[in-house]
């Protein structure tokens, strides 16, 4: 689920409580007045830039502003900045993938320059070059995925930029039709639906609860991702896991699209092992709350009370973890990988 | 078994006995059952392992070789009576003294064979520590260099240890590294300096690959334990014990179910350590694992070795626990240092295994010794206690190593990433 710049998201992040609470640490820690979070937010405004890339670019800007005189100091500053970013975002998973990648890159960068300032400019340039190159990744992925698409009906989930690009690319040559889930609670499926319909692709909205119903009508499932983790599994907008399970039961291929900067060194053992999980998620309301007017109001007024309350929605997860054995293939700019291939790639990249 | 097959086998057994009587028994250590026989190698044309074995028998034996070669090859030694196809698991051998054996090694051999020192880590550390003493007491003979001669001196020591108990993968890896270090020793270095350098390398190996690795695993695996978790573990692993103790010291609230099994009952010791540290524990035997597995949030086990295909070789019973957990979608996490990796591929626990000596681990309650003696004398009864079994990668969720948490399918990419020098 590629981070969304929908109004809902913008609203959420601006009103998010942590922003105000954590003002203090960020103020004291930020490097010589450089606010890495502000920079991150500004970069994110660009519709094309995904969270991990924005994090990389924000850290690049930090290096530009940094007064660090040694590698050690610089890496320490980067770690601190990464920590700030992590604390101030509600869902740090894909952001972490970006900061981790960049810090690993900085630490492994050959120190050949005579002076440190040179090295810093080199690092900045490398970071920017990478980000520029990374923008072409989606194009690569859509070309790779093209060979797997015939005149098919495809089921997709929520909104993903890389899935959108792939579908639009496929539409040029093939006759595809798309089912898209509504993807509650954020309703990003509507965004996908509108964009695809505008491009002339036959598209139908599917209730999240109707996925099993539609499964026999589709040829394969195409989803984006928030992060691809070391097990070869996938972290994506909530609902992906159930789609994958149904796809497995119906023996339909489940394809995930992920740019390589979303590969993340994380190994969740279960849904509850995700960094986004906390005790509030799906907790039972206190006894006192159960007596609140919700129950009594229900029968009396119009249909609206039958919807979930905002508090109830807040207590729900936003992302879920799809086990590797449910995923058929992961398309990325480094190639088409099996889930095992993803984990081998990740182990090779970071364990060295 | 058909009549013809039985007759064939009897004949082969007779032939094997005759052959054994003809040969000097000292010349043919039991291990050769697994190796091509040297005596036949010269005359027979291009023989496979099985073929060479069969060539030892009268012509009739060659007919059924493909099916029964193994059984036929393993019939030597009256004390292996009944173990037949399992005798290649390596029964304790009569220790042969070839060359001079260092007292430290003799002591260690005894500790190994009596199972006073068990566990892959403990055995590896004990071996390396003993070798340090051996190296310090070693004097290069005149007209020799340390880098060339020391290994020839160490070889019989190693064989002595192997005779006491089959070598663990960890010991094999450590000794391979030691050999590499010895052969890389500078010829011009004064002897004492060279010995000190080697001892230091051994210390570094123990520290980096075992002690420090364990600390990292402790932390990584500990982070997977959440408040309110119910952890299930099988038998006793030093790493798992450390992980649980560290997580407890960290203030995490969790309970531990120690599953144990005869004949070694190692879990009792773990139970003692954990419960005295104040961790809530439950103790049960392997047959009861089905009743508690649904209440478990994670299975945490150790390993003897880890193979390229992601299979874990561990205490017999681990595979059963892992499969049971897999069946109930309980994550199975194996704690294993990277020095336990083996380049080999193992597909089952039959091709390579080890038998627990019957005398040490009585298969029947010890308070009824008369039963044991009477059972031992039964001509048609064999007592079989394999020490290890193989857990297939499909029933393992993750392996926690010092380089991170990895799925078993990616094991093979790690040694390369570590830039391992040995092959």
UniProtKB/TrEMBL annotation, chain A:
<dbReference type="InterPro" id="IPR042528">
    <property type="entry name" value="elF-2B_alpha_N"/>
</dbReference>
<dbReference type="GO" id="GO:0005851">
    <property type="term" value="C:eukaryotic translation initiation factor 2B complex"/>
</dbReference>
<dbReference type="GO" id="GO:0005085">
    <property type="term" value="F:guanyl-nucleotide exchange factor activity"/>
</dbReference>
<protein>
    <recommendedName>
        <fullName>Translation initiation factor eIF2B subunit alpha</fullName>
    </recommendedName>
</protein>
<dbReference type="InterPro" id="IPR000649">
    <property type="entry name" value="IF-2B-related"/>
</dbReference>
<dbReference type="InterPro" id="IPR037171">
    <property type="entry name" value="NagB/RpiA_transferase-like"/>
</dbReference>
<keyword id="KW-0648">Protein biosynthesis</keyword>
<dbReference type="GO" id="GO:0005829">
    <property type="term" value="C:cytosol"/>
</dbReference>
<comment type="similarity">
    <text>Belongs to the eIF-2B alpha/beta/delta subunits family.</text>
</comment>
<keyword id="KW-0963">Cytoplasm</keyword>
<keyword id="KW-0808">Transferase</keyword>
<keyword id="KW-0396">Initiation factor</keyword>
<dbReference type="InterPro" id="IPR042529">
    <property type="entry name" value="IF_2B-like_C"/>
</dbReference>
<comment type="subunit">
    <text>Component of the translation initiation factor 2B (eIF2B) complex which is a heterodecamer of two sets of five different subunits: alpha, beta, gamma, delta and epsilon. Subunits alpha, beta and delta comprise a regulatory subcomplex and subunits epsilon and gamma comprise a catalytic subcomplex. Within the complex, the hexameric regulatory complex resides at the center, with the two heterodimeric catalytic subcomplexes bound on opposite sides.</text>
</comment>
<dbReference type="GO" id="GO:0016740">
    <property type="term" value="F:transferase activity"/>
</dbReference>
<dbReference type="GO" id="GO:0003743">
    <property type="term" value="F:translation initiation factor activity"/>
</dbReference>
<dbReference type="InterPro" id="IPR051501">
    <property type="entry name" value="eIF2B_alpha/beta/delta"/>
</dbReference>
<dbReference type="Pfam" id="PF01008">
    <property type="entry name" value="IF-2B"/>
</dbReference>
TrEMBL record, chain B:
<dbReference type="GO" id="GO:0005829">
    <property type="term" value="C:cytosol"/>
</dbReference>
<comment type="subunit">
    <text>Component of the translation initiation factor 2B (eIF2B) complex which is a heterodecamer of two sets of five different subunits: alpha, beta, gamma, delta and epsilon. Subunits alpha, beta and delta comprise a regulatory subcomplex and subunits epsilon and gamma comprise a catalytic subcomplex. Within the complex, the hexameric regulatory complex resides at the center, with the two heterodimeric catalytic subcomplexes bound on opposite sides.</text>
</comment>
<protein>
    <recommendedName>
        <fullName>Translation initiation factor eIF2B subunit delta</fullName>
    </recommendedName>
</protein>
<dbReference type="GO" id="GO:0003743">
    <property type="term" value="F:translation initiation factor activity"/>
</dbReference>
<dbReference type="InterPro" id="IPR000649">
    <property type="entry name" value="IF-2B-related"/>
</dbReference>
<keyword id="KW-0963">Cytoplasm</keyword>
<dbReference type="Pfam" id="PF01008">
    <property type="entry name" value="IF-2B"/>
</dbReference>
<feature type="compositionally biased region" description="Basic and acidic residues">
    <location>
        <begin position="1"/>
        <end position="20"/>
    </location>
</feature>
<dbReference type="InterPro" id="IPR037171">
    <property type="entry name" value="NagB/RpiA_transferase-like"/>
</dbReference>
<comment type="similarity">
    <text>Belongs to the eIF-2B alpha/beta/delta subunits family.</text>
</comment>
<keyword id="KW-0648">Protein biosynthesis</keyword>
<feature type="compositionally biased region" description="Basic and acidic residues">
    <location>
        <begin position="67"/>
        <end position="78"/>
    </location>
</feature>
<feature type="region of interest" description="Disordered">
    <location>
        <begin position="1"/>
        <end position="78"/>
    </location>
</feature>
<dbReference type="InterPro" id="IPR042529">
    <property type="entry name" value="IF_2B-like_C"/>
</dbReference>
<keyword id="KW-0396">Initiation factor</keyword>
């Amino acid at each position: 689920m590629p981070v969304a710049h929908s109004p809902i998201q913008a609203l959420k992040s601006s009103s998010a409580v942590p922003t105000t609470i954590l003002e203090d640490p960020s103020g004291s820690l930020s490097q010589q007045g450089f606010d890495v979070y502000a920079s991150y937010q500004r970069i994110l405004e660009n519709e094309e830039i995904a969270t991990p890339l924005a994090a990389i670019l924000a850290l690049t800007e930090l290096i530009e502003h940094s007064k660090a005189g040694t590698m050690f100091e610089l890496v320490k500053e980067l770690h601190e900045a990464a920590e700030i970013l992590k604390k101030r975002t509600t869902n740090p998973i894909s952001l972490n993938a970006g900061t981790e990648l960049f810090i690993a890159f900085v630490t492994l960068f050959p120190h050949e320059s005579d002076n440190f300032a040179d090295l810093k400019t080199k690092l900045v340039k490398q970071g920017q070059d990478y980000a520029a190159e990374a923008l072409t990744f989606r194009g690569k992925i859509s070309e790779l995925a093209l060979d797997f698409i015939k005149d098919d009906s495809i089921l997709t989930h929520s909104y993903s930029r890389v899935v959108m690009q792939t579908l639009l690319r496929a539409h040029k040559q093939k006759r595809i039709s798309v089912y898209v889930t509504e993807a509650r609670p954020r309703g990003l499926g509507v965004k996908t639906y509108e964009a695809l319909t505008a491009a002339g692709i036959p598209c139908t909205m599917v209730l999240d609860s109707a996925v099993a119903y539609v499964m026999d009508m589709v040829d394969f499932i195409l989803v984006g991702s928030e992060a691809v983790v070391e097990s070869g599994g996938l972290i994506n907008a909530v609902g992906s896991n159930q789609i994958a399970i149904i796809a497995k039961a119906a023996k339909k291929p489940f394809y995930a699209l992920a740019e390589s900067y979303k590969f993340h060194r994380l190994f969740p053992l279960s849904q509850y092992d995700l960094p986004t999980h906390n005790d509030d998620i799906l907790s039972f309301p206190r006894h006192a709350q159960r007596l609140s007017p919700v129950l009594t109001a229900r029968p009396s007024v119009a249909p609206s009370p039958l919807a979930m309350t905002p508090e109830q929605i807040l207590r729900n997860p936003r992302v879920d973890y799809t086990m590797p054995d449910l995923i058929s293939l992961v398309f990325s700019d480094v190639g088409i990988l099996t889930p095992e291939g993803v984990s081998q790639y990740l182990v090779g990249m970071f364990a060295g | 078994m058909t009549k013809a097959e039985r007759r064939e086998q009897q004949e082969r057994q007779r032939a094997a006995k005759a052959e054994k009587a003809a040969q000097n028994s000292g010349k043919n250590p039991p291990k050769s059952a697994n190796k091509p026989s040297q005596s036949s190698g010269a005359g027979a044309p291009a023989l496979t392992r099985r073929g060479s074995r069969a060539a030892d028998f009268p012509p009739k034996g060659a007919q059924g070789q493909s099916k029964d070669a193994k059984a036929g090859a393993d019939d030597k030694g009256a004390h292996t009576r009944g173990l037949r196809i399992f005798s290649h698991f390596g029964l304790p051998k009569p220790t042969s003294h070839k060359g001079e054996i260092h007292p430290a090694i003799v002591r260690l051999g005894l500790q190994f064979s009596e199972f006073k020192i068990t566990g892959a880590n403990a055995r590896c550390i004990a071996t390396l520590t003993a070798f340090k003493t051996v190296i310090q007491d070693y004097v290069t003979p005149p007209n020799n260099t340390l880098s060339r001669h020391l290994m020839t001196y160490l070889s019989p020591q190693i064989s002595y240890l192997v005779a006491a108990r089959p070598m663990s993968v960890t010991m094999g890896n450590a000794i391979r590294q030691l050999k590499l270090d010895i052969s890389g020793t500078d010829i011009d270095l004064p002897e004492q300096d060279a010995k000190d350098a080697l001892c230091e390398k051994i210390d570094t190996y123990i520290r980096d690959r075992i002690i420090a690795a364990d600390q990292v695993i402790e932390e990584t695996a500990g982070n997977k334990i959440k408040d309110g978790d119910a952890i299930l573990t099988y038998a006793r692993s030093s790493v798992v014990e450390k992980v649980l103790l560290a997580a407890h010291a960290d203030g995490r609230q969790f309970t531990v179910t120690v599953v144990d099994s005869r004949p070694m009952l190692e879990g009792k010791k773990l139970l003692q350590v954990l419960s005295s540290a104040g961790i809530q524990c439950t103790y049960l035997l392997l047959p009861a694992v089905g009743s508690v597995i649904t209440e478990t949030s994670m299975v945490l086990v150790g390993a003897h070795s880890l193979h390229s295909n992601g299979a874990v070789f561990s205490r017999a019973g681990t595979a059963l626990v892992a499969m049971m957990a897999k069946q109930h979608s309980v994550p199975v996490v194996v704690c294993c240092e990277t020095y336990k990796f083996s380049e080999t591929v193992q597909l089952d626990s039959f091709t390579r295994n080890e038998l627990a000596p019957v005398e040490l681990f009585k298969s029947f309650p010890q308070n009824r010794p008369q039963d044991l003696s009477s059972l031992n004398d039964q001509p048609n009864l064999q007592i079989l206690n394999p020490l290890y079994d193989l857990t297939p990668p499909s029933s393992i969720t993750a392996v926690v190593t010092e380089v991170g948490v990895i799925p078993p399918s990616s094991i093979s990419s790690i040694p390369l990433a570590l830039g391992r020098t040995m092959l």
